[in-house]
Amino acid sequence: MANESTKLSKAELEELCLKQNIIIEREDPFNNTKIFLPNIEKINKMIREFDFLVDGSSRGKAVNEISKIERFLYENEENVDIKSQYLATYYSNASMYIENHRSLIDDKRSENWKYLFVSYFKLEDIYNYFNKKSSASTFFKEYAIYNDMVDLTYNVKLMEYLRSQVELEIPVDDDKDMPGKIDEINLKLAILHELGFIEKLSGMIPDNTMPNMAKFLTVICNEDPASWRDILQKLKNINLQNDKDLLTELNLNKAYEIMTVFGIDIEKK
To answer: What percent of the chain has pLDDT over 90?
Structure first.
């Protein structure tokens, strides 16, 4: 995007951003130097416009695709097998897309999203946003984060529709579709973690938190009482991304697959 800011030096750009309150100046206590931080109150305006445009664009895409699906289902109203296969393909594709972009979903839900959002843009980009002459829509479309978020939000909206259609159109044999008994403790803990149960439980146990939580989970998971110390170690390694972390890709995929069977809305957990 050609603009005047490309002619500015870093110091000149920082000075302009300071004058417009886009960034704020702070002292680094460790080496007594000046550092510049994004002014989150100012950035909030950028985020609100970004979210508004993402929602509008993704909603339009979803409405168009849902209309296409509805037309196909109507034209094949008498052919249950074709409708089931058609919906299953859409469901699988949307589900796979969401899983492949789960880190972006987690970032968006994070308390640090405002700072993560800023990291997708250079200071020059942010300056250009607050001094743009074109529309915000034109501005954001040039950035990968905008297009990625539109596609992700579109798939989430499409999935919400598909879940209701799958329940209506695909015959369900309750016994046949029931997952088998879960014997693997790592999978049990992965499911409880992804449901937010472990995090909530830790906040409800004020004293001797980790050991008491490990003992409680040992009991409710019907494990050998003597194994509570092993479970304690598993809890301590959650999210550390080491070889003892039970949140492996395999365990998480199995967990999401099981939860989906029961209609658990993983995106809104």
So the answer is: 37
Residue with tokens 């890709």: 249
Residue 221 has which token pair?
């998971």
Cβ atoms of 80 and 13 closer than 8 Å? no
Q: Element (H or E) spanning 27, and its range? A: strand 23-28
Ramachandran category for residue 121: left, alpha or beta (phi over 0 → left; psi -120 to 50 → alpha)? beta
Residue 217 and residue 189 in contact, taking contact as beta carbons nearer than 8 Å:
yes
Q: Is 215 buried (19+), middle (13-18) or exposed (0-12) by CB count in 10 A? A: middle
Is this structure's pTM higher than 0.70? no
CA distances from 23 to 15, 116, 258 (A): 9, 15, 46
Q: What is the DSSP string of 32-54?
A: TEEEEEE-HHHHHHHHHHHHHHH
Strand partners, 23: 38
- Distance between CA atoms of residues 129 and 117, nearest Å: 14
Q: Evaluate whether 42 touches 22 at the Cβ level (below 8 Å).
A: yes
CA geometry: angle 52, 54, 59, nearest 5 deg = 100
Residue type, 228: W
14-26 tens-digit pLDDT: 899 999 989 888 8
SS3 13: helix
